Amino acid sequence: MSDEGWTETFASSTHSAASAETRHSCALAEIARCTPKGNTGSNRGLRPRGMVAFATDEQTTRPRGATRTPVRPLYVACSQATLHQYVPLLGPCMLRIKMYPAKNGDSFLVDAAGTFILIDAGFASTFQDFIKPDLASLTNDGRRLALAVCTHIDADHIGGLLEFFSSNGPQPRRLVEVDRVWHNSLRSMPLQPGKEEGVQGKLVLEALRRRGFREPAAPGPIGARQGSSLAKMLGHDGYLWNEGNGTTCISQDQHPLVLSEAVSVEVVGPSRARLEALRNVWLKEGAKLGYKGGAASTDLLDDAYEMWCATAFQATAPKIRKVSANGNLRLADIYAPDHSPANGSSIAIVIKSAGVQVLFLGDAWAEDIVAKLRAGKPATGPILFDAIKVSHHGSCHNTSPELLATVDAPCFLISTDGSRHGHPNFEVLAEIVDRPASFERRLIFNYETAASARLRSHASRSGTPFSISMAHTNWISLEG
Questions:
Q1: pLDDT in tens, 324-354
Q2: Do residues 43 and 17 touch, judged by C-beta distance below 8 A?
Q3: What's the confidence (pLDDT) of residue 319?
Q4: What is the DSSP letter of 131?
Q5: I want to staple 108 with a disulfide (CB 3.0 to 4.6 A). Which of 119, 241, 319, 348 is the partner?
Q6: Which residues contact 183 (CB under 8 A, 6 or more apart)?
């Protein structure tokens, strides 16, 4: 049977496909359009909690020896569907994710039972081509963004957010209402008292601001206001920023944010120490140029700091030293921890919605996430999530064997087109699927890469089944 048009579903056995017969006729018509003829099998319980369902633009691939059991889809999301075209079949969807094609960057829209969260926005072209139409649909449906998150100041995460907030404007918002924004800029971190900035320091800051958000290898411009930081836009346009005016930081020390009766967001990274380390690197590098550190944050300082951060750490990734002639190295053989201060400052969160929990890791350091998740908890096995967004585009410097011993899920999201730094690293993907588990794992990519193509012919060392899919602009739906 051809895989074309399949909706892949991992479902709790408590859900019965028969109840779908009572749904509206338009939903049944959508099943007929997206599901192959003869698909009348019942749902297969592969995990005590959670399910993943989406319709792929391309053929779903399973590794050698894996089998397929036809299933009736619980949720259908066709490839070109906009927000209001999504069709739930068996009651409310607890959480669904759209992983945008953000080139070598990240961008995710989360719908947690009607509460919408935007996490990063890739490049300016990502926003214009994919995110902007979805946000317009939100407004047309009377919806809003409950939270927008800039995980950290890196060109492939912040570029589309610059484009978004530049075009959204002050009240009344031109595109969509945004209840709150999380973004750690310089003014979000306590500064050591300093003297009033002198002429030389101001010249340095002005030079950095004139340079703008430059990223030579970026696929398209970074942002519309090349001379304006995200911090400046948020402050001038009156957004609720870091639960106030942006002068406090978002860190793992804060209490979970409750967005609705069923939805909360827990911060698992960064620590305040990582944010302070990034600030100290900025002060050290600025001093080399003649900037001595001012006493207070200003628009000029915000602009210069973010434009420096966006490109300052592009070449700081540790090098993989070991090389195998037969290509059979394991992740433990090559793993070297990330030491980029910008990645260490990345906001990592767990979104919980009515029994579903998803871990979004941004570009976080593996060691920090392990320390936070294991703090005060016995190491009795991996913590199970319904989905995990893999850190730093699948880099072997941000996913360690220890992290994979700490967390697991039936669904892993990998966002990159493979155009920078060789992401994702095949050893990371192989280590994810090689571990034994009682459930099938699905690895979902937004682009085909050399590593994902190689994984198609890989056999899990433990024999645990896994499959590979390309999500593109589809919804990925989860239910507890």
A1: 445 689 999 999 999 999 999 999 999 999 9
A2: yes
A3: 55
A4: I
A5: 119
A6: 149, 150, 161, 230, 231, 234, 241, 242, 246, 250
C-alpha pair distances (Å), 273 with each of 189, 240, 250, 287, 375: 10, 24, 12, 21, 16
Which residue do the tokens 């317009």 mark? Answer: 136
Bridge partner residues of 263 (DSSP): 353
Cis, peptide link before residue 436, omega less than 30° from 0: no
pLDDT confidence of 57, banded at 50, 70, 90?
very low
The DSSP secondary structure of 146-201, one letter per residue, reads: EEEE--SS-HHHHHHHHHHHHHH-SSSPSS--BS-EE---GGGSPPPP-PPP-HHH
Check: pTM over 0.85? Answer yes or no.
no
Selection from 63, 113, 159 nearest residue 463 by Cα: 63
The pLDDT mean for the chain works out to: 79
- Measured distance CA(373)–CA(465) in Å, rounded: 27
32-67 exposure pattern, b = at least 16 Cβ within 10 A, e = fewer: eebbeeebeeebeebbebbbbbbbbeeebbbbeeee
Query: Looking at residue 80, what is its pLDDT?
Result: 35
pLDDT at residue 130, rounded to an integer: 96
Identify the residue whose tokens are 């310089």: 186
* Domain range summary for the chain, segments of one domain joined by +: 7-478
Say yes or no: domain 7-478 is CATH 3.40.1280.10. no
Neighbours of 12 (CB within 10 A): 16
> With 50 as the cut, is the pLDDT of residue 11 above it?
no
Ramachandran quadrant class, 300 (left: phi over 0; alpha: psi -120 to 50; beta: rest): alpha
